[in-house]
Structures are given as structure tokens and as C-alpha cells.
Amino acid sequence: MNTEDGERSGRPKEVVTDENIKRNHKMILNDRKLKLNEIADTLKVSTEGAHHIIHEYLGMRKPCAKWVPRDLTFDQK
Question: Origin, by domain of life (predicted)?
């Protein structure tokens, strides 16, 4: 009985790259009102991939209409 996963055919995960993270961050800083679908279309990735980059790697969330950093500084509050 083998419990390890074998090689699978299909598309590898190449969404989270340094280039995509930088491009995503630059887009958000230029226009904080961008929608997730617009970001995903521009980067040519899925909306789940763009969501993962924004939340996990950039630490941002969109509580209202603008993307904001998750941890605000004292001056930003």
C-alpha cells in the first residue's frame, strides 16, 4: 500500500511568481478600486489565484470599495 501521491498530468501552479506578485501590488497601488476580476484578467490568472496573491502574499483585504493593507499603522488609523 502506497500513501504518496504520484505524478499527475495537468497544468502546474505557476500563478504565484515574484513577477505576478509585483505586478499585482503595483496595479493595486495605482488604483485601489480595482475589482478582483479586472486584476485576474490583466494578469491572465484565475480569480482564485489573484485572490490568493492579494490575501496571502500582499496581506490586503477589501472591506468596502478599496484594497487596504490588513495591518494599519497608527498614522493610517
Answer: Eukaryota
